[in-house]
Amino acid sequence: MVEAGMTTSRINDPRTPPSTPAVGCDVVTVPARQGLEAVDILRRGPGDAVGPVLHDDGGGTLGFLVPPGTAAAWDVPGSTCTGTDGRGLTLAPRPPVEGSDWLLPPGEADLATDPAVLRRALGEAARTIEAADSCR
C-alpha cells in the first residue's frame, strides 16, 4: 500500500495485527443448519474439537477451517472443501471472506478442525436433522 510517498507492507498494515499468523488451511462449506448442528456436536465432545468457523449470512452456509490438503480427499455428500493452494489465510479479527462473520473466531478455537472428527460430526448432524424432519 502506498500513502504519502511511504510504502508499507502487509505486516505494517494497521488492519492486520502483526501477531496474527498467515496459515494454510482449507475450508469445508456446509449448509448452515447442518453446520450449526455439527458445531454443537463438536463442542460437546472431548477437548477443543472445533476450530474457527465462518458464517455466511447471505448464503446460509458455514465454513469450517481444516488443515491444508484436506480438499484433496474430501468426499462428504452435501459439502464442499476448497483448498487454498498454499496461499494461506490471515486469521485476523475480521473474517477472511467478504460478507461473512466468525461464528467461532480464531483465538477462541483451535487453529483448524480435524477433518476426521468433522466428518463424523457432519454425519451425526445429518442423521439428527433427518430424524427431526421425519417427526413433523
UniProtKB/TrEMBL annotation:
It comes from Streptomyces levis. Residues 1-11 have a biased composition (Polar residues). Residues 1-22, 84-108 are annotated as: Disordered. It comes from the Bacteria. This is Uncharacterized protein.
